[in-house]
Structures are given as C-alpha cells and as structure tokens.
Amino acid sequence: MISRAFDFLARRIDGPLMAALALTLALGLTVVYSASGGGSVDRVMGQGRNLLVAFLALWIFAHIPPQTLMRLALPIYLVGLSLLIGVALFGEVRNGARRWLNLGFTSIQPSEIMKIGVPLVLAWYFHRREEAVRLRDFAIAAVILVVPVGLIARQPDLGTALLIFAAGFFVIFLAGLSWKVIATLTALGLAALPFLWSMMHDYQRRRIFTLLNPMEDPLGAGYHIIQSTIAIGSGGVLGKGWLNGTQAQLDFVPERSTDFILAVFGEEFGLVGNAVLITLYVLIIARGLMIAANASTVFSRLAAGAITLTFFTYAFVNMGMVSGILPVVGVPLPMISYGGTALMSILAGFGILMSISTHKQLVSS
Amino acid sequence: MIVGQALRDPQRELSVFRGRIFLGAFLILVAFGLLLARFTWLQVFQREYYHTLAEANRISVVPVVPNRGLILDRNGEVLAANYSAYTLEVTPSKVPNVERAIDELATVIEVSPRDRRRFRKLQEESKNFESLPIRTRLTEEEVARFAVNRFRFPGFEIKARLFRSYPQGEVASHAIGYIGRINDADVKRIDAASLANNYKGTDHIGKLGIEGAYEKELHGVTGSEQVEIDAGGRAIRALARSEPISGNNLIVTLDLKLQKIAEDAFGDYKGALVAMDPATGEVLALVSRPGFDPNLFVDGIDPQNWDALNNSPDKPLNNRALRGQYPPGSTIKPFMALANLYYKKRSPEYSIPDPGFFSLPGVAHRYRDWKKGGHGSVNLHKSIVISCDTYYYGLATELGIDAIHDFLTKFGFGQRAGIDIEGELAGIAPSQEWKMQRFRQKWYAGDTVSVGIGQGYMLATPVQLATATAMIANGGIPVKPHLLRAVQDSKTQETHPVEQAGGGAEPIVKPEHLALVRAAMVDVTRPGGTASQAAAGAPYAIAAKTGTAQVVGMKQNEKYDEKRLKREHWDHALFIAFAPADNPKLAMAILVENGQHGGSTAAPIARKVFDYFLLGKKDAAKLPAPKEDEPEDEEHD
Prior knowledge:
By secondary structure, chain A is mainly α. Chain A has one domain (16-364). Chain A is built from 14 helices and three strands.
C-alpha cells in the first residue's frame, strides 16, 4: 500500500534531480531560520508552506506530458501577455513600481507567469518551424521575447525582465541561432548601450555606480553591498557557525532573509558552505542539461535547456550581486531565499524538466 | 541567408543543440569558478580585513563616566555634591530645524525663554554633533510625557545624569569655584595633558577655585564598556566592562561656619577676608564679597545671568581675596618696623618728635600725618599703636626703597603667596629696578616716603597680607596658604592628609624683634590703640593693625571729606590681626572696600570671626558703635 502510494507520487519524479533539489531546499530552510533572527520558527513554517505549494506545482507539471505542455504554451503566453498589458493600464503601484494586477479576489504579478510562458512559447515556436528554421523565424522569436520583456522592464522590474530575457535568449541560442547573428546582435547591443543608459531610471544607474564604487555612498546606495561583502568576508573558510553570524544576527545585512540571504549563509558557513552550495547548484544544472541533451523533441529539449540555464542565471546573478561583482537587481537566491513566488516558478520549471525526463520513452516509442 | 538549410538534418540539428549545451555547461563552470574565486578572495585573502570591519560594526566602546569627588569642609560639611536628575538633550546635527523642533517640544513640556537663551548660547559655543541639554531637572511627569511623544522628536533624548550642586550657594563660592561645560580652551588643555581618553563622555570640567585646581583628584578615571550593538545602534548586550574609578573626595581647610560668619559680617560691604592657621597655612575662611551662585554655571549659564554677573559694577566674579591688589596702607607698618629692627636703623626706644608732617630735606612739600598737629614724641611701639605716619615717612627714607623691597619680599610681598587655587595676582613691592622696568623712570626720594605707610606704588592682595600676618604670628616662619587639607581615596575610603610644600622651617626675623612688634600690635586693640573699640571686652588678646587705603588722591591742603565724595571713592578699610596674641591660632587680613576706617568697619568683622573661632559663639559679641571722633589712621597726601 505504502509502496504503491510512493509509486504514485514518484512515478514522474526524476530521482537524481529530486535528491539534489531536496538537499538544497533543506539547506535553505536552515538558513532561513538563522536569517529570521533565530529563536522563531514562524518564517521557517511559512517557508515550509511555500514549499508544499511549490512541490504540488512541481508534481502537477511533472505529470503534464510535454505534448500537452506544448499545446498549452501559446495560451499561457497570451494570457500572460494580456495580463501584462492589463498591468500597464490598470496595475497597482507598490513601492514606486507598477507590477501587480488586482483581480478582485487576489493580486498577482503576471511577470511570474512569463518566467514559464516565454521559454515554453519560444520552444513551441521553434518546434513548429522544425522543418525549416529561417532567419525570419529568429526575428519573430525575438519579437515574441522582446514585447513581454519590454513591458516588464517598464514596470519597472529590471531583475525579472533580465531573467525572462535570459530564458528566451537561451531558447533562441539553443535553437541554433548562428554565431554571425549573435556577434552582430552583440555589437548592436553594445552600440545601443548609451541609448539604454539614457533610458534607465536614476536608481538603476546608481546601482551601476554603486557596484563600481560602493564606498562613495556607504550609508546609502552602497550600504547593502558593503555590509553583505563584510558578512561574507568575515565568515572566513569555516564560517562563524550557524546562528552566530554577527553581521546577520545584528541586522547589519539588509534583506537578510530574501535577496541577501547568501550573506547570512556565507558568514555563518564560510567558504566551505559556499562551495557546497555551488556544488549543489552544479549538480542540479548538470542533471538539467543531461535531461535536455537526451530529450526527444525540439520543444522538450529547448524547454529543458532554457529552464536549466535560467536557473543558473538566477543563481549566478544573485551570488554575483551579493558578493559585489554584479549590480544589485532584485533577484532572490534560488531555493534558499525566503519567499513563495520565485520558489513556485522554479519548482514548476523543474516539474517540466521531470516531465520531459520521464515522458521521453513514451514519445520516442 | 537561410539558416534552416543547415538544420534540416535532425541528426545535425541535434549535434548543434548538444554542442551549444556543452558550450553552456562550460560557460556555467567558468561562471561558478569565477564566483568561487571571488569567495576565496573575500573569505581567505581578505578575511582579516572584513573581520575587523565586522567587529567594528558590532562592538561599540562606551565610556563610563566616573562620579566626581565631593568637596567637604574640615568638619565634613558638604560644599559640592552630586545629584542624579533627568535632562532632555538634543543633538542639533540630527534635527533639521532645531528652533521649530523646540517650539513643538514646548507643547509637550515646559521650555522657558531662559532655557532657550541658554541653549542658544550653548549651541554657539559647541559643535553641532554634541548632545546639548535643552531642559534640565525634569520631573518624573515630564519624563513620562516626553516618552509618550518621543517619536515626534528624533534627535532628542532623555538622559539620567549626575549633576553638580553647591548646597551652600554663594557661601565660599570664590574658594570652591565651579564646574562648567568643557569648551575649546579646556579641550586644548586636556589634549596637552594627554587626558583626552579620560575625558571621553565627560562634558563638565572644574573651571575655578578648588573645582579647577584639583580637577585631577575630583574627576576620577573613566571606565569603559564594550557593548554589542545592532545595526540600529541599540545595545544588545555588554561584552566587557572596566569600572570607572570615582573621583576622590576632597576635605578642604575651610570651616563652613566660620566662613558664613565672616561673610555675614561684611553686611552690604564689598571686600575680602582671608583667615588662616598661622602655623600651617590652612585657610579657614576665604571671603570675596560679593559672591555668586556657582550653581548657575553648572548647566551652562544663561546670557541674562551672565551679563548681570559680568557687567555688575560690584564685580562679583572677581576674587578680591586673590586678585584684588590694594595699597596695604598702615597695615604695612608692623613690617616696616621689623625692617627697621632688621637693618638696625632706629633703636626701639628712639623717639621722633612728630609735628604732624614730614618733609624731605630741602623740599617744601609736606607729607601729612593723619592727625593734625601730630602725636608728639613717638617711638617704635607708639608708632604702631597710634599708627603714626610721620615716624614711617622718615623711617622709609632712612631705609631706602631697595632695602624695603628686599625685606618685604621675605614676607611674600610682590609675589604670589602660592595659594593652591588659580588666579592669584602678585601685588607690587616696589624697588628702583621695578620702577625702571615698569615705567622707564628713575626712583625719586618722594616715592619712598609714601611706601613707608603702604601707599604710592605699593600694592598687596588680601591673601598676601594674611600670609605675612601669619608669619608675624608664627614666629617669622614662611608659610604657604592652602585650601586642601586631605584627600579621601574613593576606593579605600581612607583619608590621607595632604602635605603642602612651600613653607619654610627657619624664622626669617629674630624672635626679640618680633616680640617688640607683637607687643605693639596687642596694644593696638587696647584702649588708646586704633582698634580698641572693636576689641573691647574680648576675653582673649588680639594683636592687630588697622589700615586705610586711598581710592582717590587728595591735593595738598585738601581735606578728606567723605560727605563730598561718591561712595565708590571712599577709602578702603584694612585690618590685619591674629589671636590669641600669646598663642596665635588664627591670623587674618580683611579688606573692606569703601569702608573708610579699618578700626570701625574691618576690625568688627575680625572680632566676630575670632569670637566664633576662639569662643565658639555663634553670634558675634555685641559691639559698641564706632564714634565719630575716634582715632583713625589715614594719610592725606
């Protein structure tokens, strides 16, 4: 009975990926406990509830066959796009940004839908054009990508826009966009930098300045990055020990349980902890890339590859920002930071990976 | 260009995909490698640097200010104490508009115009980031009312602090001095003495008197506390603490009751009194009238009170006992008499005929005696008892100014008496050299004549006169006046007497010379002497000398008439005395500004002090009112 229940639950679950995910999430809970000041399990319980919901999403997506998912890709994208337009027109302003849409019974951030919607719809598009992918198709793909990214960047939510752009770009890249075009686009992008600079908000420009010289404004814009760097650096090789980070426990690290949780982790667990975390990420990414490489359809391999690379982008952007080599953008540390929304979209993505991994035989047969 | 052509072959397409996946995997490893390198740099190579920063973040060293030592009189009466009270302080740099914030504060607790003026003065005198009191001595209710509203007043803070109080008010204010807020000049002195660390957290310092002179004893040693703080600056827990060492209590030589009696005895007169134990130099009373309330200075004085004190024609802030330089007048005569015996000019029995004036040979100018027609035949003894001017005009001329200077210097004239509080002036014991240096003029014979009766260029402070008098009383042994008697160690509570250096061991005059002068000084207070009225009925013998010092000069043939002069031009009255004459316990000098006659205004003050000190009477003996035609010593030149 128990083994049948396990079979039912685990049928569409990829074992190695699940193991790596579970380890990382367990690590995340211990850090969240420390980052909420210790002594209170409220945040840990809250994150536990988030995890249950996210695992449910993973399980559901794992059970949706890739073909079904491919059929759903366009509707998901279109719903997401119209909601984004709705945000631009009727969205609620919170903290100076228009990101939320009030649906009457609840408020949602449609940009989260696009984190899954954009890579899926692009994978679907290239899958359909499998017979003869032309340059024109890449141009259309670019439009599919740029419209939602532009809408999100205007909210403004640069971090999310960047991640969605990265997800879409990975699909296009994996679909075989020629190096010549990539080189041309890169050159054009570099040429357009001054223009982009003039389009940026003041606070966004300040973040770039802050990265270059955090000490210029140590109590203002530079404060986050200075304090998080101090936390990580003072952790040393072995760390100060769980719950013993002074920077973390005495509140010097800002947003310590969300975007800057790596500073807490790095302070308390040291270089060894950081290496362990990076290893876990590498294992997860390696498994994801294996699933992508072995996927049987264009859609599934593009979707799996893009989801995996996007996950990497999350991890790298957050770690780079907290350790002071990338500008500060609002990206949480995947599977460690406190918060339900990002966790859900990430685990939903891994659900899709598992679906691709476990449905492969059926498709090829 | 048709990209698709190359991708038609699914196998080819798959290999392109896998190639890109491998490329991606490679880039990912590079990126994570970069991150690991960054972490290694921060956590291995820069670890010490960031560790220091993290410790500096969380550890704050808070100075713990020691309690200031108390000042007690010789009988244990408290002259300066501490009390704990709440103040409301504001750091101006943390408040965008201080004036407006104070207006708003005034709606919560009372802020008087005086508080505002004082605060403005403090603000001008201090740096913006210092925490300055806007209100002191808050009641419990005011503290509670502010606490409820404190969110409206960022930068304002209630502090419980120790305050200095001077329970005796004006009494002995010039001896005790006061503390005040540390100003720029104080900071320089503190830095110069390398005491900056010990003054962290301290915002008051002794400014004058005993508070100023014994700052080091009173202040104590500042302790410190290492506190772990969070990002908001709130103290989380104490990590380590080194206790402060309280300042030592000072037991001073003053006798508070004696001091009060002396001050009261002045009535409305301005002036000064210094009374000391002639054997030790311990100052039992140090009066400078008018006084001031030192409590006004503790929290920063408000401009109104400051102007009142500073601009008053009575100069209450001037310590007359140490800084008032007056012609000693006839009180110099005992010392001139001793000089005569020392230089063996006139024998004690030698008498001069006193026609009522003195003239230098070949000069018509007459130096008049205070008594028209003169005193008849006058010898050394009589010259002191009736204060004959003519005797000393001639004597001074015979001695010569440089011999006078040399002898008076032995008694401490012309130099600071060396009392152990700041601000003393040196007075003048003139000499030929002094006049040349001071005025670039040669000394004239006429200059010497005036010095013979303590006028002319001669100036002395009350503390100098008292010290010189003590030397007549103690057998001619140099003595150093001082106010500190003992120090009570704050840790052991043991009291250690203070050995005051600076006195001498050997008498500077012969005992038989002193005996002659002392006998004459005793007769000054007996019938026929210039101070007989004040001493009448005393059951002990007083040795004394009266004196009068001119405030304005008189022309030849002009008669001093107090009714025609403004009160502030009336002569100053002086009196030096010690008692009991055969075994002196107390020596003193008194100056009464515009008191006119030493015998009638200054001597009664001395009598009250002696009576209390020797007889223990709280109220001075009833004294007969001075008569109009009593003998008085004065010189109208």
